[in-house]
Amino acid sequence: MVSKLRQDIAAKGESGGGALGGLRMTKQRKLVYDVLLDERDHPTATEVYMRSKQRMSSISLATVYNCLETLSAAGLVKQVNVGRDASRYCPNLAQHAHFICVKCEQVLDIDLKNDKEVESVWELPEGARIDQLEVAMKGVCPDCNAAEKEVGGNG
Ligand SMILES: [Zn+2]
Ligand SMILES: [Zn+2]
Question: If you measure from the C-alpha of residue 9 to the centroid of ligand 2, how many angstroms do you get, rounded to a whole number?
Fold first, then answer.
């Protein structure tokens, strides 16, 4: 799965080739990255575009897509795929899983318990090492769960 992702990135990547390592932070890339860092609610590319436009009215959707792709390829941003919906973007580089609420569709970052090593959480084959974690859980978030109980409560 990881190698497939790399292939996709390579296939769609810029002609420049080895740009992955020393990423040049252009004004636009910095802006898109700042937008992601400022509000960590896992926005879609369109949402990132709308937020970016408020700060740089000349920026285009294509540029935002481009920046997101470059930042993802450089490993600064994670792409989160929620079913068939548009990809969301996450600047949290710590190993974490994503919890997707099926009711309000918010995406929560889920950290490992007590700084556990990610290798210790799964029954990995002997000698395997995890470089990248892409775990998505679906369920009902605390807010929606509480709201549900209120509605369905005795009354
Ligand atoms: Zn929810
Ligand atoms: Zn995240």
Answer: 20
What is the C-alpha to C-alpha distance for residues 114 and 122, in angstroms, rounded to an integer? 15
CA of 145 to the centre of ligand 1 (A): 7
The pTM assigned to this predicted structure is 0.73
- Domain spans of the chain? 26-92, 94-118+131-152
**By mean pLDDT, which of 28-42, 65-79, 116-130, 137-151 is the weakest?**
116-130
Ligand 1 geometric centre to CA of 7 (Å): 34
What digits encode the pLDDT tens for the residues 82-107?
A: 777 789 999 998 889 999 999 998 99
Report how far residue 51's alpha carbon sits from residue 108's, in angstroms, rounded to the nearest whole number.
20
In CATH, the architecture of 26-92 is Orthogonal Bundle (1.10)
Assigned fold of 94-118+131-152: Dna Ligase; domain 1 (3.30.1490)
CA distances in angstroms from 120 to 1, 64, 136, listed in the order given: 20, 37, 18
Per-residue pLDDT of 53-84, as tens digits, reads 999 999 999 999 999 999 999 989 999 887 77
Measured in angstroms, how far is the CA atom of residue 130 from the centroid of ligand 1?
Answer: 30
Residue given tokens 């949402």 in the structure block? 47
